[in-house]
Structure formats: C-alpha cells, structure tokens
Specification:
This protein has helices at 2-26, 117-127; strands at 43-52, 55-66, 69-79, 85-96, 101-115, 131-152, 155-165, 169-170, 173-179, 182-188, 196-207. By secondary structure, it is an alpha+beta fold.
Length: 208
C-alpha cells in the first residue's frame, strides 16, 4: 500500500513540476521569466538552519532546468523534541513565481533515532529504576513549503517561511529498554504517520 502511495505522489510531483516550469517559461514579462535574476545560472548550493521538530541544519544542491525551476537534492539533520535525532534526505522541486517568491515540493525519507529523554524521566520517576529508552524508525512522504529568496549576483539568501512534512508511511520501530543495566529489545508497529511543521528555515547560498 505504501509503495502505491509513494508512486502516486512521485507521478504528481513530476506532473506539477512540469506544469510549474511551463508557466515560468511562458511568463516573459513582469518579475518572472526574462527578468529573472537567475538567468545564466546552472547549479546552486544552499545551507542553513531552521525548525523541524526541533532545531535543524540543512544543505541542498540543485540544477536549474530554467531560471525559475530548480531540481535539488536535500539533506537535513535535526535534534527532535522526543526522539533524539532525525536525518532526512530527499529530492525537491523549487519553483519561483516572482523574483523572490518560491515554493518547494519534495519527496522526503526521514530516519529517526536516539534516546527518549522524556520517557526516561517519567519511567525512572515512577519505578525508581535507572531507565533508558532507545528508539529507531523511519518514515517517508511529501514536503511542501513557501519562501522568499534575495539575490546579489551569484550570492543569495532566503527563508522558507512555513511548510509541512506529511509522511504517508512509517516503518516498525525498534525499541530498546534498559532498566538498571538490564536490556530488553522489542518492536512496535503501531506508530502513526503524523505531519510536522517546517518553520523559518533561513539559508545562504551561491549559484554559478
């Protein structure tokens, strides 16, 4: 089932990207198209910080299909509120609708791992035992965000103002519970694919 959902999203992703690029190519006047500050740029690289279930750092590298359409690879590492760390990888389509305004549409695979400090504290308080939870799982799904970008020649800065990552599939979780040095391993398959917000993701980059 999840493979079918991922395939359907990939088809929508490609179709929307082609549609966006056609629109950008047709607008030869105004703030898009022939007046784009990205004319002549072929590749672009970005790096920055923001919020994604915690403080996150990210980087991307992309190729300009045309001045207002970039297809990019994306990687992000975040410190999450409950589960330690997450590592996300994906491919995104960045489409510019004006000189500055752009949207990002992507397919993301996120791996989450680490210790759950919240459960450690709660369990240790109630049982009186030295307790540690370790957890590992992954999920995947679409990401959509809207942002702005400013250019100074080959240098640019930008911010993704708001966005959402919406996983459509979550793997089984591998969980290790350690109480007073006694370790127990188990697997949970009841995790739900919950959406998460992406906020104020500020970045700097270069285009050549």
């Amino acid at each position: 089932m999840w493979c079918k959902k991922a395939f359907n999203f990939a088809v929508i992703f490609v179709a929307m990207s082609v549609s966006f690029s056609a629109r950008a190519a047709d607008e030869a006047t105004g703030a898009v198209g022939s007046s784009s500050p990205r004319i002549g740029r072929k590749v672009t690289f970005d790096a920055g910080y923001g919020y994604s279930n915690g403080i996150a750092r990210f980087a991307s590298g992309g190729y300009h299909i045309n001045p207002d359409w970039v297809v990019e690879g994306y990687i992000e590492e975040a410190t999450t509120v409950f589960f330690g760390h997450s590592l996300s990888r994906g491919i995104r389509s960045r489409n510019f609708w004006t000189t500055r305004l752009h949207t990002n549409l992507g397919l993301i695979h996120r791996q989450t791992y680490g210790e759950n400090k919240f459960l450690d504290l709660m369990t240790s308080s109630f049982t009186g035992k030295d307790t540690r939870y370790e957890i590992s799982f992954w999920d995947m799904g679409p990401e959509l965000s809207i942002g702005s970008q400013w250019h100074w020649g080959g240098v640019h800065a930008g911010v993704d103002w708001i966005g959402v990552y919406w996983p459509v599939y979550v793997s089984k979780a591998k969980i290790s519970l350690t109480e007073d040095d006694v370790k127990t391993d188990k697997t949970r398959g009841d995790l739900k694919p919950d959406p998460s917000a992406r906020l104020l993701r500020v970045y700097l980059g270069v285009s050549i």
